[in-house]
Design a protein that fits this description.
By secondary structure, the chain is of the alpha+beta class. It folds into two domains: 56 residues, no CATH class; 73 residues, no CATH class. It is built from six helices and four strands, in the order ββααβαααβα. The longest helix is centred in the middle third of the chain and has 13 residues.
């Protein structure tokens, strides 16, 4: 993973980080059609990876327990104590948005019907730290 930022002064790109590990939003790339781990495995095995020429636009990934933490924080604390940016959604809007659990091109970061164990393990860890 290589990260650049644009320098506001001259518009040039500045290298911020080179990280040999996969990044936190990796599942979004996979859900969009670019399977970086499969590409890495092919390269490690000496097999030329299949080129990726396109990806699905509009795919969204959701980290359900992270969203629940954010909602709980906003519901249980005074907004003035949270240093929220101007225009941050209201409590009602956050609760409404949280309730939309299904949607076109909505994928979950950890939860999957085809393999529920990672989600269940994350839930157990999340509950044990409450």
């Amino acid at each position: 993973m290589v990260e650049f930022k644009e320098d506001d002064r001259d518009g040039s790109l500045r290298l911020m980080e080179i990280n040999s590990r996969f990044w936190g939003s990796l599942q979004l790339a996979i859900s969009s059609g670019v399977d970086f781990p499969a590409i890495a495995v092919a390269v490690a095995n000496g097999t030329p990876p299949e080129p990726v020429f396109s990806y699905r636009v509009g795919v969204r990934n959701r980290w359900l327990l992270g969203d629940l933490d954010a909602l709980g924080t906003v519901l249980l604390h005074r907004r003035s104590n949270l240093n929220l940016p101007k225009g941050y959604p209201s409590r009602a809007r956050l609760a409404w948005d949280f309730m939309h659990l299904l949607g076109r091109d909505l994928h979950y970061e950890v939860w999957s019907l085809s393999d529920p164990r990672p989600g269940l393990l994350e839930l157990r860890h999340w509950l044990s730290h409450r």
